[in-house]
Design brief:
Chain lengths: ~160, ~160
Amino acid sequence: MTAPDFYHAVTATALSQFIQRTHGLIAGIQMVHILCLACVFALGLALALRLAGKGFDSESLDSLSRRFVPAIWVCVALLLLSGALLITAEPVRSLPKPVFYIKMALIVLAVILTSAIAGRAHRAQRSGAKPPVSKAVAVVYMLIWCSIIVAGRMIAYY
Amino acid sequence: MLLEFSQWLGATSLGTAVAEDWFPKVECVHVIALATVVGTIFLVDTRLIGMTSTQLTFRHISSRLLPWTWAGFILAAITGFMLFASNSVAYYENGAFRLKLLLMILAALNMLYFELITFRNVATWDTAAKPPFAARLAGVLSLALWCGVIMTGRWIGFSL
């Protein structure tokens, strides 16, 4: 099966047809996608600020990540689900484009870094060590989330 | 008068530069700014409703996040104005764009009422896991209005 055949087969499925033909559904799914993106971005920002020692200083990084990282996972799961529905509706809009795969790779990177930050904070808390503070990691972390947004917008253009 | 302003703005070098070269770049910055605004507002509003971070005071959350909301809003307003300039007459005549502006004005009025009236006695409910009805109502209205802003913002792309 060639790539165009695959896109055609996906577009012909009942789910794809339902999303395409229901007035306002694509816009509604996009709204959920953007809302989840905004939430994950703000949660990531709070985590990065604490990691850089620039905010939320009354709470340890471990405590903050215990509250915020599960919320990040929920948002990422909803992002993947809403993204999958949008791809099902219009596979040609994203799947043939290299920037889509760059976005996916960046999401994997963001998930790994989120886990690493939370894991390191938890280990430091358990062993009584000094909590990790790294402005560089915080900046890189937020740059990854910004790049995910940029790559997402670029799918519409390239 | 607004139509004349839109016609003038679209013909400026800013309008043509954004339309011809900068639109995707400006749009990316606009979405990052919007994510900062809406995301931080959601974290503050869900605390106001009593859904999240209930072990922390409301002021603890709001004082740390709202400066980022304002910074994001200023950036979103600047980039939004630049995007508007790229096709100003079409945006001016677009129903979704007008509705988006109306929802933003309502969100601002809701915030103003909250700041001037409800927030005045914050000391009495700052630590409460479930703030008073007026505060929770402000949070729910804010969440609904910003969802509407995102929805109408997306709808502009479908209706231009």
